[in-house]
Design a protein that fits this description.
Helices cover 77% and strands 0% of the residues. It is an all-alpha fold and 134 residues long. It is found in: Cell membrane.
């Protein structure tokens, strides 16, 4: 007997949606700020760094929220671990793609965009709590 219960909640109503939305906004703001102050190479480098953080987080959220309900508890835990492993692999692969495939590239801007988006993820509990109160 398969104890999986698919989660039918729309993606925009999941707890991860406000965090991912905020991460997307921060990636765009970081890219725009870098572009204005340091030029277009820094701008797209910062955007790429932000996407290197954002895309694996979106993958992780997709994996974790695929199932719901008490009967799916084991499957959810399994998805959590496989989602985290996939997130790490995807992050490494995206960094390699950016370093190898994009020329010219501003490494400092890549890390600035990446760290800016990671900072949003680090404050995810505050973001989710704020959006759930309204």
């Amino acid at each position: 007997m398969d104890a999986r219960t698919p989660n039918k909640t729309p993606f925009r109503q999941l707890p991860a949606f406000p965090v991912l939305s905020m991460q997307c906004a921060v990636a765009l703001m970081a890219a725009l700020t870098l572009w204005i102050f340091q030029g277009y190479v820094a701008g797209y480098s910062g955007l790429l760094g932000g996407l290197v953080a954002l895309l694996p987080n979106a993958y992780f959220a997709y994996r974790v929220y695929r199932y719901s309900g008490a009967r799916s508890a084991r499957v959810i835990v399994k998805e959590f671990y496989s989602g985290e492993a996939g997130k790490l692999i995807l992050t490494a692969a995206l960094f390699v793609l950016v370093w190898v495939g994009v020329e010219p590239l501003e490494p400092t801007a890549v890390f600035a965009g990446y760290l800016a988006v990671l900072a949003v993820g680090a404050s995810a509990l505050l973001i989710v709590r704020r959006f759930q109160k309204h």
